[in-house]
Amino acid sequence: MDDPSPAVRRSAVDVLTETVPPATGPALAAALRDPHSDVRCAAAASLHELVETLPAEPDLREGLAATLTEDDPVVRAAALDVLRALRVGDAELFADVLAAPATAVRVEAVRALVSVDAAEPLSQAAADPSREVRVTVAKALASA
């Protein structure tokens, strides 16, 4: 994962995804912060693919939480989705992302907030300027 070539780092993500050795989750979370977008996208896709098999280990949670301040909305949305699916995030962590400029990130934050029953931040998200975010809030509240 430290090779100077983005193609090699991207291949390393693929190998991790296929073999799933110990510490795959934290390694993929670290790859979400790679300077090259191809590597970040591959890591996001791999995390989505492996989410049901990855252990909810502290290093993975920390790595994913650290990516929530990244500029790349694909990275932020993927991190939120995995944090939610593994049930390792909390209302404060998810609510902090509601101000993200990307609608897809705010939608994932709403889904994550629903998973932890965070009513207060959800009520704030109901006034989001994006119709997609508001609809996600409404659907979540209707199914709760």
From TrEMBL:
It comes from the Bacteria. Gene3D superfamilies: Leucine-rich Repeat Variant. PROSITE patterns: HEAT_REPEAT (PS50077). Pfam families: HEAT_2. This is HEAT repeat-containing protein. It comes from Streptomyces mirabilis. The lineage of its organism: Bacteria, Bacillati, Actinomycetota, Actinomycetes, Kitasatosporales.
